[in-house]
Each structure stands twice: as structure tokens, then as C-alpha cells.
Amino acid sequence: xxxxxxxxxPTLEAVAARAGVSRATASRVVNGGAGVRQPxxxxxxAAVDELGYVPNHAARSLVTRRHGAVAVIIAEPExxxxxxxxxxxxxxxxSRELTANDLQLVLLWVEDESDHGRIARYLAGGHVDGAxxxxxxxxxxxPRLITESKVPTVLGGRPGTEAGPALPYVDTDNRGGAREAxxxxxxLGRRTIAHIAGPGDQTSALDRIAGYHDVLIDPDPELLxxxxxxxxxxxxxxxxxxxxxxxxxxxxxxNDLMALGALRVLRERGLRxxxxxxxxxxxxxxxxxxxxDPALTTVRQDVEGLGRLSVKLLVKLLSRPTGRVPASVxxxxxxxxxxxx
Amino acid sequence: xxxxxxxxxPTLEAVAARAGVSRATASRVVNGGAGVRQPxxxxxxAAVDELGYVPNHAARSLVTRRHGAVAVIIAEPExxxxxxxxxxxxxxxxSRELTANDLQLVLLWVEDESDHGRIARYLAGGHVDGAxxxxxxxxxxxPRLITESKVPTVLGGRPGTEAGPALPYVDTDNRGGAREAxxxxxxLGRRTIAHIAGPGDQTSALDRIAGYHDVLIDPDPELLxxxxxxxxxxxxxxxxxxxxxxxxxxxxxxNDLMALGALRVLRERGLRxxxxxxxxxxxxxxxxxxxxDPALTTVRQDVEGLGRLSVKLLVKLLSRPTGRVPASVxxxxxxxxxxxx
DNA sequence: CACTGGCCTGAAAGCGCTCTCACGCTGCCG
DNA sequence: CGGCAGCGTGAGAGCGCTTTCAGGCCAGTG
Lengths: 341, 341
Fold this sequence. Notes:
homodimer, 14 helices, LacI family DNA-binding transcriptional regulator (chains A, B), DNA binding (chains A, B), Lambda_DNA-bd_dom_sf (chains A, B), DNA-binding (chains A, B)
């Protein structure tokens, strides 16, 4: 392969000349070689190798109007993203699946509403074939913005009511998972079951509350405390719960990190888990569960799978005759029984 | 703005026609308007607004040979990336600074060597103007691969010796920071100072060891244990150290997460921090430090700043007449004194 | 043996933009 | 009053690729 810089990269023209064919034929070979006789295919392939030819992407998208790239929009204004592996794990699933589909990942990080203009402009600019947005919050006007940009998009997580026009989404079966968790506590004979919920601006938190209510019809409202998905907030919520309702014998915590905080407080107060209080978390985050003592019983969700699935759905959306929007997908959860309940 | 889909987006031609000027003039206005008289500038601007014109990126890069995009290569085969906020924080710095420079972020996640071909092909494909690679490991052949691709690149973190041809890098002053940490322990009158190091395949870990040795000439080799930057491994290392050298009265731990593990073991063994054993960490990760008890004294490094700096360096590199490579940059650290030492 | 049809191949037309170059106009100087 | 800068504008080439369309070739058929 000859020495080359960005400036003197060989063009398809050069490949064609070297192979003794027309540019059209060279192009056909580079794009799979359908309808070209074998001898010519071989010649072109050889020329490509000898010259180290790589297609010019810009020229190609100019005519095909496709870019082989997907925007991944992370709407996470808070720093939580750093302490919660959820984010990175989902991103990894997305990255892997995009790679498998030969798509590039353009990362758009939205910190606050001042970024919305930039995002809208970028999407409208037609740089990407599609988009995936995740970590949305309830009051987020992003889904609307995205809808207006007309870029095929899949959301990670059920959007709030603000979303307006329906974009397809992938989500964990938060409600079903929560039901399973609470039912498990009930099956252990627990009578006073509290719930430490996530922040009310996230549908995942709301859905888990709904699941809790599905099982425990009309529970004491004092048994429900809202945290912010951090260990600290879980500890605080647990402390408050114990202060108000000392008789609690079971807690369903909306994520593992908060459950860790709850376990700490229970330990500090001399309550035994699970004998005195049984605890069930949500997520089954390996790093967190490993750190917990006793080992945390929790609702497992496949976060990386969620990321992969969002890409699969998008790919389907892209290949579909315009207009038809595929249905959203809900991923099942399963309860992982360990020591805490 | 008229209703439009990807297919019928207005072109510069349309803008020019509407403004009653030539395409060339319209182009000049869209690109800043230098050398065009005000009345025409206004007319074109108006036409752009009325039509909702957005330049076609592919067409533009086809002629300018620039893409306004930078590849960010994360070489992190391990899952550590999920538990260590280091990664996300650096990425955020990069993202912010790229945005400030009107550059897009194309994320390339390298899981193992089987991805190298894909990365090389992508870089060689000339899709991006430059690249930033971070989280490199000692035996990584990635720097070499990147060098061969001829894409201007900045490394996050000093590369190992494998790197071969010098690519500019940004890094924290790991060695200086380590010196500062150990000197602080010495100044507290500590005589038997251990070091829990990071994995030997990362230069940051090696540099911190070097800093330790800078201050403690020829220390007992048994005082040095290697961890893997996880809390778990820090705990294990601490336990082993105490088993072998019960007289330890100071520990410099190569990152905060491992320090957390070390603190836990010290507490479990009934040793008081800092009275019996003084502990200094490295990173000053907010989430980790907040969780530590007692509050961790640590060497602060500005991880987000590191990310931003890598972009700044790359931008400089891109604007520079080819050939001249700007010097690498080392960011200073500072010791944050809290309760643990 | 002429004709038809199918299969390959190449010529050429763009995709939407930038940028060079030439041209026209204005104002100033000799 | 002719000539000459100098500025602003437009015509047009061309970036590298895909894709249509016409034409050439060959085999099979009447």
C-alpha cells in the first residue's frame, strides 16, 4: 500500500484505471459486486488492495443521502451519571449493537435547555440517519424537539406525558418488576411493606411505585418515601421511614444504590436483615450488589440489553417504509433471590 | 418555515434564487458573509430563515475536506469503566470542549484487539478531522495503529513504551502528586509508609509508584502492593499489608476507590485513622470522598479539565501547519487535606 | 441465419457545496 | 477624460461517488 496522506488518497477513478474498468464497475464491486462478472470483480478487488483505497464517505452520503451514523442523546443534567453505572452500561449496549450494524455513534450530551438549540440544529442538519435518546426526565421538552426534527428516533425509557407525539421506546418492565418484588415480600409474610421510590420526574420511578400499589392496595401513605437514586438519599429515606413507622418489616427500594444506603441504616439501628426487615432492590447492578451486606435480593433488569434493543428497534425503524412506526418494546425483569429477602 | 422532510430540504441554490443572488454569494453569506455588501447579506439571511435552510454537511466536507468531527476512542476492555467515575467525567470534559469548538464527538469503544481493524479502517476512512484516545493500557497497540492512520491525535494519559512514535498527550502530574502525598505523610511524622498501587499496565499507576519512590528512597519492598483501582482490591491489599507489616502508620493509596476499601479494612481491624494509620488517596472523586469515613485526604486531579485540555491540544494540532506536533501537557495536582491524614 | 432478450459494462448526469477566476462597476489619479 | 486599481459578484469547474440508461455482446430460438 503506497504511502499516503489525507490529501492524496486514491479515488475510485484511480482504482478503475488500475483495474482497467470504468468507475461504475469499480463502484459496483466496492459495494458488493452484484452483477459484475468474477474476473472483473477480482481485478477491482486487487486494485483496491494495491492502492489502499477507502471510499470517501462524504461523497457517498452526498448521493445516497445516508450517513451510517446515529446520534445518541444523553439528557443528563445532573452529576448522577457519574456515580450510576446505569448510564455507562446502557451506552455500552448501544455502542456494541451499533457496531454490529456498521453504524457510527455520534454522542450528543445535553446538559440543560440551553443545549436544545444546538441539538435541534444538529438533528435538522441531517448528519445522522437516526437518533437514540435516553435518560429523559419528566419535564423534558427534548422528545418534542426530536419529533419536530423528523429524524427517526427511539427513546430509552418511557417518556413522560410531555412527549406528545408518540416516539417508539424501549423500557424495562418497571411496573411488573416492582410487583414481583413486593409480592415476594408478601410471600415472606411481611405485613408492613414500605417503598423507597426514585425521583418523581422519572417514569421508571413512577412505574415502580405503580407496581408497588398494584400489590398493596391502598397502603399507608407514610410507607412511601421519595429518594433520588443515590445511596445517601436511600439512607435518609430509610431513617425517616423507621422514625415514623417502627413496625416496618419489609422494604422495596427502587434501585440498588438506595438499597445499599437503606441496609446501612438498618444495620446502624441494630435491625437484622432479613429477620427483622426484608429488603428488595431493583437493577441488580453487579458492583453494588457485591458491596452489599447481606447480599441484596433484587429485581434484575438487563441494562445493556436495553441499550442493544434500542438500536435494534431503530434499525428496524430505518429500514421501514416511512410512516409506520414499530411498537415500543418492554423488557422483562426477574427477581434474583439472595440473602436480604 | 415550510414543512420539509429529509428528501426535500432546500439547497443553497434555492436560497440564492429566493434572495436574487448567485449561489456563490449565498455561500459566502452562509459562511460568515465576508466580502459581501450588507443589503445582499440581509437578503440572503432572510431567505435562509424563510426556507429553513441548513447546509448539507456531506456536500460541504466533500469540497472542504473537513468534517467538524473528532473520534473519541475509549480503550477500556474491562468493566471497571462502570464503577469508576473517572471515565464519564473525562468524557464529559471532552464533550463540553468539543461542543465549544463546534466539533462533533464520534465515540469509538474498543473492547479488545478484535476491534482494532474496525478502528483503523474508520480512522483511515477520513471521517474525522482528529482523534482523542484515552484509557490506554501499557501493552496497547492502539497508539501505533493510530499513528499509522495519519489522523491527528491526542492521547489522554501518557502512553506506555509500546507507543513508539510520539503522539502528544495530556496527563495529570501523577508523579508529582504522589510525591506530594508521601511528603505529607512524612511531614506528619509517619515512618512506615506503604503504597497501594494501581495495575502495572497503566502508566498513571507506574508514575505514582515512581513518585512514592522519589520521596522514600529504597523502602521495604513489602510495603508496596498492587491493586486494580477497585474498592475490593484496595481492601485486599490493605489486609495483606497489615498482615505482613503490622507497624504501618501511613498509606498512600493510588486512587480514592481503593482508599475506601483500605479505610474499611483499617476500621474492621480496629485501627484508628489517622491516629494509628494515616491514609492519603488520589483523584478527589467527589462521590467517593463523600462516602468515606473519616473524610479522605487525597491528591486532587482535575479529570474533567484533563478531558477539556485534550480537546484544546487537538484543536491546536489541527490548526497547525502539518508536521509540527505541539508538546504534551501535564496538569498540576494539589493535595486536599481532610481528616484521614 | 436473422432476431430477440438478457446480462454486463461504460458514459454521463448529477448529489450540494466551495472557491477560483473573470468581469463589471465605481472612484480616483494623471 | 482616459486609464487603472480595487472591490463585489456571478459563472462554472470540480470535490468523489452512485445510479440511470443506452449499447454491446452472446446465447437461444423460430
